[in-house]
Design goal:
By secondary structure, the chain is mainly beta. 0% of the residues lie in helices and 56% in strands. A hairpin with a 4-residue loop joins strand 7 and strand 8.
């Protein structure tokens, strides 16, 4: 079983920055995409950013130019650097990753979520 542990959320003023981290642990043969999603109260969970094993990145239009996703393959860790934060970025942020635990068995795991609140 692959577990994801997130950290780095918190309360920040508008215009501020936060860096989220998500580390995968367990029996891992390979990891494909690693990504961040968020869910605000009363809204559906939405993609924020994703990075493939080759380093290709995709961002939601609402965060382009402000957020940067990166990964450290040696540590099975994905990061989300969030700059110029806005109140509308307030949400619970979830890490997601998929890959294989063996050559035949795939996994798709979610973290427990970390709260990001942008408020003055």
């Amino acid at each position: 079983q692959v577990q994801l542990v997130e950290s780095g959320g918190g309360l920040v003023q508008p215009g501020g920055s936060l860096r989220l981290s998500c580390a995968a642990s367990g029996i891992i043969f390979s990891i494909n995409a690693m990504g961040w999603y968020r869910q605000a109260p009363g809204k559906q969970r939405e993609l924020v950013a994703v990075i493939t094993s080759g380093g290709t990145t995709t961002y939601a239009d609402s965060v382009k130019g402000r957020f940067t996703i990166s990964r450290d393959n040696a540590k099975n860790t994905v990061y989300l650097q969030m700059n110029s934060l806005k109140p509308e970025d307030t949400a619970v942020y979830y890490c997601n990753t998929n890959g294989k635990v063996t050559t035949f068995q795939a996994f798709d795991s979610w973290g427990q979520g970390t709260q990001v609140t942008v408020s003055s």
